[in-house]
Design a protein that fits this description.
single chain, alpha+beta, MetI-like fold, 2 domains, three-stranded antiparallel sheet, two-stranded antiparallel ribbon, 5 strands, about 15% strand, elongated
Length: about 375
C-alpha cells in the first residue's frame, strides 16, 4: 500500500517521476518563498536585529560620544571622484569645517577639499564590551582621526545620529518582543479559559476584555506610563514599559483563541482525550492550541509593529524610556521642534527607520498568513 501511494520514485528510489509527500511545515515554507516581498522583509529584519545586537561594533561611534565642533552637522557626503577627476575604488570623505553665521547664528558646514580621509573597515575607536563580555575598540567602519564620518548627521550635542539609531533600534525592537511575549501569554491564558470552560468564566473574561477595548489606547498607555516612578533606572523603565504595552495588548488574541477553542472543543479527538483521562490543561496545551499554531505565528508578527509604535509614541511624549537610555522614540523627541526640523531635517531619519521596521513586519505577517492558509494552493 505504501509503495503504490508513494509512487515508483519513492518505492524504488531510482529518481524517476512520482508522488511526493510533504509535511505541513514544508508546504508552508514553499508557499512563503513565493511571497518575495515577505521573504525580503524577513531577511531585512534579520539584518536589522543583527545590527541592533551588535550595535557597538557596527556603529562608527559610541552612543554618547560627543563631537563638540560638529553640532547639528549634516550627513557626511561620500566621494569616489576627487577634485582632479580621478576615480577611487575606496570611498573617502573630505575634511568638514564650520563657521558661525553672525546674522542667523547658525553653523554653516563646508568641505575642505585639501584634506581627505578614506572610509575603512575595522577601524579603532571608542572602547566597548562586545555583547557585554569582550572588551575591544574595533568598529566595523569609519575614518581615521582627525577625520569624521556622520552617515546621518549629528544632533544638538554633536552625537552621531546613525550610531544612536542602532542603539535605539535595539531598545525599540526588543521592547516590542518583551511586551509581546507577556501579552501573548496573557492572551493564551485568558482566551483558553474563556473558550474551553465557557459559562460564567467566559462571561466574566469577555466583559473584562470589552472594558479594556473600550478604553482609548494612547491615553491609557500614558496613564499607565505615568505610574512608572521617575527614580527608576533605564533598565527598570525598560521592563515597566514592556508591561505597560502588554497590559491591553492581549485582548485581541484572547478573543481569537476563545473562538478557535469553541470550534475545536467539540471535535472527536478532544472527546477521545477526555474519555482517556487526559487532564484539561493538557487538552488545551497539547491538543487545542496546536490546532491553530499557524494563526498564532501570524498574530505575533503582526502585533510586533503595534508594540514598537507604542514604545515610540510613549518615548516621543516623554512618558516612556527616558534619556540617557536611547530608543527610536527618544531620538524623535528633538524633532518636536518645528524650527529644528526645518533647519536640520536629518533629525527625522529615525522616524523613517520606524516606518521601515513596521512595514517589514507587516509584509512578513502577510506572507506567513498566506502561506499558512490551508485553502491556498501551493
Amino acid at each position: 500500500m505504501a509503495s503504490s501511494r508513494l509512487g515508483p520514485a519513492a518505492a524504488a528510489g531510482d529518481g524517476e517521476a512520482g508522488y511526493e509527500i510533504a509535511s505541513q511545515r514544508q508546504l508552508i515554507w514553499r508557499k512563503f518563498r513565493r511571497h518575495r516581498v515577505a521573504v525580503f522583509s524577513f531577511y531585512l529584519l534579520l539584518v536589522l536585529y543583527a545590527l541592533a545586537i551588535l550595535a557597538e561594533f557596527c556603529s562608527p561611534y559610541g552612543a554618547f560620544e560627543r563631537h563638540r565642533g560638529y553640532l547639528f552637522a549634516p550627513p557626511t557626503k561620500l566621494h569616489f571622484i576627487d577634485q582632479e577627476r580621478r576615480f577611487h575604488l575606496r570611498p573617502f570623505v573630505y575634511k568638514v569645517t564650520n563657521e558661525l553665521d553672525m546674522e542667523t547664528f547658525q553653523r554653516k558646514y563646508a568641505e575642505d577639499t585639501s584634506e581627505s580621509y578614506s572610509l575603512r573597515l575595522f577601524v579603532r575607536g571608542e572602547s566597548y564590551k562586545l555583547l557585554g563580555v569582550f572588551k575591544t575598540d574595533l568598529h566595523l567602519f569609519g575614518v581615521e582621526a582627525p577625520g569624521v564620518f556622520f552617515p546621518a548627521g549629528t544632533d544638538a550635542l554633536g552625537r552621531d545620529l546613525f550610531s544612536r539609531m542602532l542603539f535605539g533600534a535595539r531598545t525599540s525592537l526588543f521592547v516590542g518582543l518583551l511586551g509581546l511575549a507577556f501579552g501573548f501569554v496573557l492572551g493564551l491564558f485568558f482566551g483558553g479559559l474563556s473558550g474551553y470552560y465557557g459559562g460564567g468564566v467566559d462571561t466574566l473574561i469577555q466583559r473584562l476584555i470589552e472594558f479594556l477595548q473600550s478604553l482609548p489606547t494612547l491615553p491609557l498607555w500614558m496613564a499607565l506610563a505615568a505610574l512608572v516612578p521617575a527614580r527608576w533606572s533605564p533598565i527598570q523603565v525598560y521592563f515597566g514599559i514592556s508591561l505597560v504595552l502588554a497590559t491591553i495588548g492581549w485582548t485581541g488574541l484572547a478573543r481569537v483563541v476563545r473562538g478557535k477553542l469553541i470550534s475545536l472543543r467539540e471535535e472527536d479527538y478532544i472527546l477521545a482525550a477526555k474519555l482517556s483521562g487526559v487532564r484539561e490543561r493538557a487538552i488545551i496545551t497539547r491538543h487545542l492550541l496546536p490546532g491553530f499554531t499557524s494563526y498564532l505565528i501570524v498574530h505575533l508578527t503582526l502585533a510586533v509593529p503595534s508594540m514598537i509604535l507604542g514604545e515610540t509614541a510613549l518615548s516621543f511624549l516623554g512618558l516612556g524610556i527616558r534619556p540617557p537610555a536611547v530608543s527610536l522614540g527618544t531620538l524623535l523627541q528633538e524633532a518636536q521642534n518645528i524650527q529644528t526640523v526645518t533647519l536640520n531635517p536629518w533629525m527625522l531619519i529615525p522616524g523613517g527607520l520606524v516606518v521601515i521596521i513596521v512595514l517589514a513586519f507587516n509584509f512578513l505577517g502577510d506572507g506567513l498568513r498566506d502561506a499558512a492558509d490551508p485553502y491556498k494552493h501551493v
